[in-house]
Design brief:
The chain is of the alpha+beta class. The protein contains 8 helices and 18 strands. The chain folds into 2 domains: 155 residues, FAD/NAD(P)-binding domain, CATH 3.50.50.60; 97 residues, Polyamine Oxidase, Chain A, domain 2. The model has no long low-confidence stretch (mean pLDDT 96). The structure holds flavin-adenine dinucleotide.
Length: 329
């Protein structure tokens, strides 16, 4: 095992939480630093009055046995339930009170510092010093550890490394800079009455404007009927990224209208700048490990950019990295 006494993990999405759950079994002094107010990253749920919307990831699927066992464990703990079988024959599971139920379960008993954005990192004499700017404050703080894991979408982690003047191995940096993501605009809309989407209350679309419509009531997440989430196509997100809500929301709602039984009364949007990776670290290199590790500089990167655009792939990236870190020599 690498001699790790303390570890800072930047990000409390599924990959960061997967690293943390494993390392805590080895009595590593762990600190997770999360710029958001809650855990989960792209596994996000928003509450608006009595309505509940999943506006990031919509469901979790399992292809590998090791992850299936983790999801079954979450079902046993009443954090997750099956929703329906998708077109590829995989069960689509959802969080009991939205996708946030999963990170909420996994972050229990972990030391997560919320609303702290990491702005700079420095490595001197085998110690990492991580500078954070707490939300709403003007003064920075620092945290220290002898190992560092970055789990933000890869372009964001690379930007942090560059702004901190930290150079990675030239070839590896080239490789990492090829990892690309698409954007997505999410619209959360309240309807006058039931959404009326066909069973199971969700549609994968291959449409110019929309790629997903989901009814959070049919999903069993929102107690209120007519609580829908729309996801834009990457092409639409690219085109309307900087447009005001008054321009882009009506176009997305008009595209959804033929599928809905009730009119929209209220809506809001959320932009995902790094929604899913389209090119990953393992691209055409299936035997490459699903993380980046530099033992000399005591730093690692993981997340969906290393393994695929799904919760399962991100979780496996984090868990594989943690297995490597604690593996006996
Ligand atoms: C709209 C949308 C729909 C999706 N649908 C599905 C789906 O249905 N099924 C599925 O399996 N997958 C889906 N995905 C993909 C899935 O959500 C991701 O693959 C997975 O959640 C990625 O987890 P992660 O830990 O790698 O990254 P993230 O979840 O992005 O976690 C990274 C964390 O790092 C934090 N962070 C970043 N920078 C800093 C900083 N400087 N300081 C502190 N904290 C920082 C972020 O706030 C975030 O919490 C979807 C994604 C989106 C956006």
């Amino acid at each position: 095992m690498l001699n790790i006494q303390s570890c800072i993990i930047v990000g409390s999405g599924i990959s960061g939480l997967s690293v943390a759950r494993k390392l805590r079994e080895y009595a590593v002094d762990l600190t997770l630093i999360e710029k958001g107010r809650s855990p989960g990253g792209r596994m996000a749920t928003r509450t608006e009055g009595a309505s509940i919307f999943d506006h990031g990831a919509q469901f979790v699927t399992t292809r590998e046995q090791v992850f299936r066992e983790r999801v079954e464990n979450w079902v046993d703990k009443n954090a997750v339930k099956p929703w329906y079988v998708g077109p590829l024959g995989n069960m689509r599971y959802v969080g009991i009170t939205g996708m946030r139920s999963i990170p909420e379960l996994l972050s229990k008993e972990l030391n997560v510092r919320y609303s702290e954005k990491v702005t700079k990192i420095r490595f001197r004499k085998d110690v990492w010093t991580v500078t954070v700017l707490p939300h709403g404050e003007t003064k920075t703080r620092t945290h220290q550890s002898d190992f560092l894991v970055l789990t933000a979408p890869v372009p964001q982690s690379l930007k942090l490394l560059q702004e901190s003047n930290i150079e990675l191995d030239y070839d590896e940096e080239e490789e990492l800079s090829r990892i690309k993501y698409v954007r997505c605009i999410s619209v959360m809309a309240k309807l006058k009455g039931p959404a009326g989407l066909p069973n199971p209350g969700a549609m994968d679309l291959n449409h110019d404007v929309l790629r997903w419509i989901g009814d959070n009531y049919a999903k069993g997440v929102s107690p209120v009927e007519g609580t829908i989430t729309l996801h834009s196509s990457p092409k639409f997100a690219e085109r309307y990224w900087d447009a005001p809500d008054e321009e882009r929301i009506p176009i997305m709602l008009a595209a959804a209208k033929p599928f809905l039984k009730s009119d929209v009364v209220e809506s809001a949007s959320h932009r995902w700048g790094f929604s899913e990776p389209t090119r990953i670290y393992k691209e055409k290199q299936p035997f490459r490990v699903p993380y980046y590790l530099d033992e000399d500089h005591r730093i690692a990167l993981c997340g969906d950019g290393f393994n695929g655009p799904r919760i399962e792939a991100a979780a496996i990236s984090g868990a594989s990295l943690a297995d490597r870190l604690v593996r006996p020599y």
